[in-house]
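From the methods appendix. Each design record in this collection lists the tokenized structure first, followed by the designed amino acid sequence. Records were kept in a plain field format so they could be parsed without special tools. The example shown here is representative of the layout used throughout.

RECORD:
FOLD TOKENS (834 positions):
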């Protein structure tokens, strides 16, 4: 949403970096003493600093430094106590210790971590440097290493050669290089030229900073002006293993309701209930599949949270019911600021004052500052009791049937101040988790304030509707915030540059634990050209969360605004997302179990792609199976090249083999070997020519892709059979997952999970349907299978009795199709060439 008209003030980053890298009066120079072995690591005194290294697991180390010998409080907003308490079995060595995966040594006072083959994972460039309460940690930075993570920061996908500051900032109008912006996730991943990876998470909530060889070539440095020197080193060796272990530390995102994966329509603002109904009716008339409509702050009475405008939205339960009849959910905004409205019957303020729930000034008075409602007060979310109280305020919304909550302005954003946030001297009372009860200043709490806001919202919704999955979206957060909310990249702009930036931001969010990421399709600020909006719809159809949103005073950006030709393209891509819903939902469930992002960089599953010869600055994969390759210069008609990782790929739209596989004559992929016998050990380059109605998408050879018929929302049962598209190749597999899409029943075994595998042989393909898990009954009665890349006639036989199954050959499309009755049992299907 728009902000006051003052220009945003970006921190003087160059000055900050210069100060942080200045010679420290108390820089640690003394040689280390002999390490002392502990039950799970080592401890050593290095001059005024004590260093402690603990192995939580064989692959996760916690490194804590104690200036003056006093270790920081063992508490964290990001890493739960039970996780921090884990310990691995270690073996002492002459200069340190070893786990089953790592060797940890002190060499001339420097911490050096290597794997069991002797390859260095991470090495200090120097001992810690201290300057009063400030500290700087420096690591060696190999020339071939690339850096990712830190959430949705700008500056391109690779962090190498850049400097960043963590300070949650209301960054309306941010450019593609502004920093800081909305979130602080002090976690990055180092990826070597050979694809080997590690991660570092600095668990410090203050204004931390990271320099990836910007100030000093070959030195990776990070630190903070105060707070604990406490970080985790996570060994891979793959990027996927690093991300999974990082989410083991900070938590997995809960499984979202299935409707959250559908198309979502928003604007700042739909001003009345009638306008909201009209837009919903138009979406249905235009047959644009839609699951959610969003209401921005104008749905409220005088912008006051936990109210509804009685004139423009007089019957919210009725509006919810009317939309629900069309299969559309309603999500509403609730900012965290509470209007300072004494003696006006405004319950959130009255109950909050009575319970002493608001943030304080240094003198103990309640902090008051202007935001959307005017003078406002701010819940003290670092108190568990305040979060509990705040959660109860959503009772009316839950009763109305509102499906989810949008937490905005929670950096926290304040109007009319140079910093755009609270004074650093504002006081927060900590009474939560395993923290000792105390009072903290805003400099310590600022970066976790938005995260604790979402925690209060999420926990409140779960208590009010304990059998429903809570859906919360946030703008600001901290590491571990994925436990409570999905997120979006904030107030972006309607430019080609921001369209490209959105992919880079979503990739890095996924690598930082936030798999459910969104960017405002169309751009929030300004207005997109018809071509830009159409291209954004095409790419947004593959976002984890797909929401069209725009600002007041900008052109409308609903799908139909630019005429029939653009509408048809946009509709087709929205429909394609719904066809892919079984695959998308299985990815969401996988993310809840493993932490694997839904949207990924290509090198996540294909490590060799880190050294791709193509411009892949915004190429990405959706799960492992689909590779999406937009033109790297989207505003240009210039032809470009797409690099497909080794192993073989198919064109998603035609179903035909792509690249070298197009010349294959054997009929199906028989192995990782092409028709000439050459092993697929290098990338496959495909020439692309941009055109507005097309977005190149490829399917990995070896994929079994579940799909369904188009529906107008996920509330509608798809017609016909479940579709399985089989793209033969090595490691041929897929998964079917289903539950009711909204309740917590899946935690009680009310789900369906079934692995499907295929084996490619010289004369065809064998499909094996594994045993189903769970008690949930599917909507389909049959499974329609399409085998791609097929040439020549074929026969299909089912089960041990080899019963014949009718099939249809399409020689032009190179497909063999057949339909199976689905009784839920394991089965083997033989597809053979005649």
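DESIGN:
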């Amino acid at each position: 949403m728009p902000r006051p008209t003052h220009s945003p003030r970006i921190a003087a980053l160059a000055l900050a970096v210069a100060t942080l890298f200045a010679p420290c009066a108390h820089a640690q120079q003394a040689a280390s003493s002999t390490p002392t072995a502990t039950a799970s690591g080592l401890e050593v005194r290095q001059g005024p600093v004590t260093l402690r290294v603990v192995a939580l697991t064989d692959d996760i180390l916690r490194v804590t430094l104690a200036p003056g010998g006093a270790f920081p409080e063992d508490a964290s907003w990001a890493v739960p106590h039970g996780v921090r308490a884990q310990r691995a079995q270690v073996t002492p060595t002459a200069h340190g210790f070893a786990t089953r995966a790592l060797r940890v040594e002190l060499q001339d006072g420097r911490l050096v971590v290597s794997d069991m083959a002797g390859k260095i994972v991470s090495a200090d460039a120097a001992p810690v440097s201290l300057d009063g309460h400030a500290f700087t940690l420096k690591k060696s930075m190999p020339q071939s290493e690339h850096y990712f993570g830190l959430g949705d920061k700008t500056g391109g996908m690779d962090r190498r050669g850049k400097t960043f500051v963590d300070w949650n900032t209301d960054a309306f109008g941010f450019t593609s290089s502004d920093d800081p912006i909305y979130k602080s996730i002090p976690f990055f991943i180092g990826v070597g030229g050979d694809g080997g990876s590690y991660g570092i998470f600095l668990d410090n909530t203050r204004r931390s900073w990271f320099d990836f060889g910007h100030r000093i070539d070959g030195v990776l440095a990070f630190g903070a002006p105060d707070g604990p020197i406490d970080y985790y080193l996570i060994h891979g060796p793959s990027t996927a293993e690093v991300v999974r272990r990082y989410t083991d530390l900070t938590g997995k995102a809960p499984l979202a309701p299935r409707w959250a994966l559908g198309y979502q329509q928003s604007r700042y603002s739909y001003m009345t209930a009638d306008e909201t109904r009209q837009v919903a009716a138009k979406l249905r008339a235009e047959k644009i599949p839609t699951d959610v409509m969003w209401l921005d702050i104008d749905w409220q009475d005088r912008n006051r949270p936990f109210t509804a405008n009685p004139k423009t939205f007089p019957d919210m339960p009725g509006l919810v019911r009317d939309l629900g009849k069309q299969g559309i959910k309603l999500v509403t905004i609730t900012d965290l600021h509470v209007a300072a409205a004494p003696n006006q019957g405004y319950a959130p303020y009255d109950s909050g004052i009575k319970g002493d729930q608001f943030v304080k000034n240094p003198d103990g008075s309640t902090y008051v500052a202007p935001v959307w409602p005017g003078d406002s007060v701010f819940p003290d979310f670092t108190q568990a009791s305040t979060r509990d109280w705040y959660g109860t305020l959503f009772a009316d919304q839950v009763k109305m049937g509102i499906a989810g909550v949008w937490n905005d302005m929670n950096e926290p954003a304040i109007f009319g101040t140079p910093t755009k946030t609270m004074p650093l001297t504002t006081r927060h009372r900590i009474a939560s988790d395993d923290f000792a009860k105390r009072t903290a200043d805003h400099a310590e709490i600022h970066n976790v304030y938005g995260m604790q806001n979402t925690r209060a919202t999420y926990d409140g919704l779960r208590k009010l509707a304990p059998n429903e999955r809570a859906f919360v979206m946030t703008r600001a957060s901290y590491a571990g915030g994925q436990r409570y909310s999905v997120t979006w990249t904030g107030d972006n702009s309607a430019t080609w540059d921001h369209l490209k930036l959105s992919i880079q931001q979503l990739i890095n969010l996924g690598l930082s634990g936030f798999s459910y990421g969104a960017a405002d399709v169309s751009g929030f600020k300004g207005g997109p050209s018809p071509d830009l909006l159409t291209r954004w719809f095409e790419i947004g159809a593959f976002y984890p969360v797909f929401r069209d949103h725009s600002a007041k005073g900008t052109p409308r950006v609903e799908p139909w605004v630019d005429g029939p030709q653009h509408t048809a393209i946009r509709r087709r891509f929205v429909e394609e997302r719904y066809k892919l819903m079984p695959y998308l939902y299985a990815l969401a469930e996988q993310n809840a179990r493993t932490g694997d992002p839904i949207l990924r960089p290509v090198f996540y599953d294909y490590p060799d792609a880190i050294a791709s010869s193509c411009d892949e600055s915004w190429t990405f994969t959706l799960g492992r199976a689909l590779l999406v390759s937009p033109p790297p210069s989207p505003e240009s008609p210039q032809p470009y090249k797409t690099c497909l990782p080794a192993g073989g790929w198919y064109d998603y739209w035609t179903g035909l083999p792509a690249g070298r596989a197009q010349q294959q004559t054997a009929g199906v992929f028989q192995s990782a070997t092409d028709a000439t016998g050459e092993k697929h050990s290098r990338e496959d380059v495909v020439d692309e020519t941009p055109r507005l109605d097309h977005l190149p998408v490829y399917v990995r050879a070896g994929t079994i892709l579940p799909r369904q018929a188009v529906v107008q929302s996920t509330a509608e049962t798809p017609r016909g059979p479940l579709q399985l598209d089989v793209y033969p190749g090595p490691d041929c597999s897929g998964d079917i997952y289903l539950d009711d899409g909204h309740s917590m029943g899946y935690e009680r075994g009310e789900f369906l999970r079934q692995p499907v595998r295929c084996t490619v042989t010289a004369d065809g393909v064998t499909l094996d349907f594994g045993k189903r898990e769970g008690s949930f009954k599917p909507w389909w009665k049959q499974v329609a299978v399409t085998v791609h890349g097929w040439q020549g006639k074929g026969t299909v036989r089912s089960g041990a009795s080899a019963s014949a199954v009718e099939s249809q050959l399409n020689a032009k499309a190179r497909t063999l199709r057949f339909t199976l009755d689905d009784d839920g049992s394991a089965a083997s299907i033989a597809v053979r060439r005649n």
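APPENDIX NOTE: The chain has three domains: 13-24+34-250, 258-335+381-425+433-594, 607-834.
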